[in-house]
Amino acid sequence: MTWKLLGSLALCAGVLANAGMAQMMTEHAGHRPGKAGGGHMHMHMHGPVGLMGRHLMPEGKVMLGLQTGHMKMSGLRDGSTNIAATTLVTRYPNRFAGMPGQPPTLRVAPLWMKADMLMLGAMYGATDKVTMMMMMPYIRKEMASLTYTGPAGTVPLGTSRMSAEGFGDLRIGAMTGLYEKGRSRAVAGLGLSLPTGSITKTGPMLSPGGMRMVRRMGYGMQLGSGTYDLLPQLSFQTGKGALNWGAHLSGVIRLGDNDEGYRLGNEAALNLWASYKPAGWIDYNARLETKTADRIHGIDPAIVMPTPGADPRNFGGEQVALYLGTNIGPARGIAKGHKINLEIGMPVHQRLNGPRLKQDWSLRLGWRKAF
Questions:
Q1: pLDDT at site 331
Q2: For the domain that residue 18 is a member of, what is the CATH number?
Q3: Given CA atoms 173, 179, 181, 186 in this order, what sign does their dihedral have?
Q4: Nearest one of 319, 125, 355 to 220, comparing CA atoms
Q5: How far is CA 267 from CA 204, 295, 328, in A?
């Protein structure tokens, strides 16, 4: 599924590139469109803040943004089926069974996980057709798990809580305009994720034998991918009156294994969205995202625990989520030019490579201003 979406992304890139060539030929013939994001057109460029790379900056302009996000996961799921913790620790085999101290089945059940992110972003209009981007996240993750006594049975022993905090992977990239006519426009982008986030974070865990030990945490608790990743994207939007709507296709392509011997799965996402602007200072928007990710390839030999997050096979899957948001930008006063945005998301379908925790909800709050 992931490779099909990535293939579609490449195909759309070719189609839109042809449209971009047609536009350039029109400009050479003397029909130059207005500057991207400038004047009257800028008033119509409203939409979901959760989709970066929908529009270009005018030449010489800078936009700074600061976003904070929160995500909560709880409850176990395998495929589309919810499972109980007692089912996990009695029926699911431990990948590391036979190694010293490893029981035959999983014995540590995740209870919940939450992640908080603070991200600084910047956009710069190198020309009217090329915009440069940068995003740097600071991440904190926390997880709680319940350990069951001994190699078998359903007697709880105690809980563990672990956390990881630090900078994530730095993302840089560029976008270019491929097509523009009236309020319709197509933008393509290509980014690169740099492995600045740690993949060797450790934390405390209670073993089924009653020992508290510090071990390297599971893949989902690490702060980065450890690899250089390509980030292609294509975006199209149009509108009429107070309404805007569009589609956004993006992907993550891992470029080789990291230093610990694995690579996260490739990802692809398709967003369909609409936005309504009843007044000049506010808009409301909604988007439906379908996302797919592959399993982790390879394995980190330092991650060995009788819990689902230590097995690379328990990652990836498919998810459909609905997001509702608003953007507020006062047109006068001391807050003029500043924009505040809020977006709340909730999954409506999850088919996970499990067993693993499923997502409950997410929240995003941000600020941005152009200079």
A1: 80
A2: 2.40.160.40
A3: negative
A4: 355
A5: 30, 10, 31
- Give the Cα separation of 257 and 299 in Å (integer): 10
- The answer to whether 199 touches 167, Cβ cutoff 8 Å, is no
DSSP count for the chain of H helices, then E strands? 3, 17
The whole-number pLDDT of residue 201 equals 98
Check residue 73 and give its pLDDT. 98
Rounded CA separation 55/186 (Å): 8
User: Quick one: how far is CA 153 from the chain centroid?
Assistant: 38
DSSP category for residue 19 = H
If you ran DSSP here, which 8-state letter would residue 125 be given? E
Q: What is the pLDDT of residue 336?
A: 86
Rounded to whole angstroms, the Cα distance separating 35 from 37 reads 6
Strand partners, 259: none
Helix, strand or coil, per DSSP, at residue 104: coil
How far apart (Å, rounded) are the C-alpha atoms in residues 229 and 32? 36
Residue 195, amino acid:
P
Residue that is written with structure tokens 């956004």 in the block:
248
Tell me the three state secondary structure of residue 275: strand
The number of C-alpha atoms within 13 Å of 219 and in the hemisphere containing its C-beta is: 27
Tell me what percent of the chain is helix, strand and coil, each rounded to the nearest 5. Answer: 15, 55, 35
- CB burial string 114-150: b at 16+ within 10 A, e below: bbebebebebbbeebbbbebebbbbbebbbebbbbbe
Residues 331-348 as b/e (b if ≥16 CB within 10 A, e otherwise) read: eeeeeeeebbbebebebe
Range of the domain at 161: 2-370
Is 15 a residue whose pLDDT tops 50?
no
Q: Which structure tokens are listed for 74?
A: 């709880």
Model confidence pLDDT, tens digit, residues 82-120: 999 999 999 999 999 999 989 999 999 999 999 999 999
Overall domain count for the chain? 1
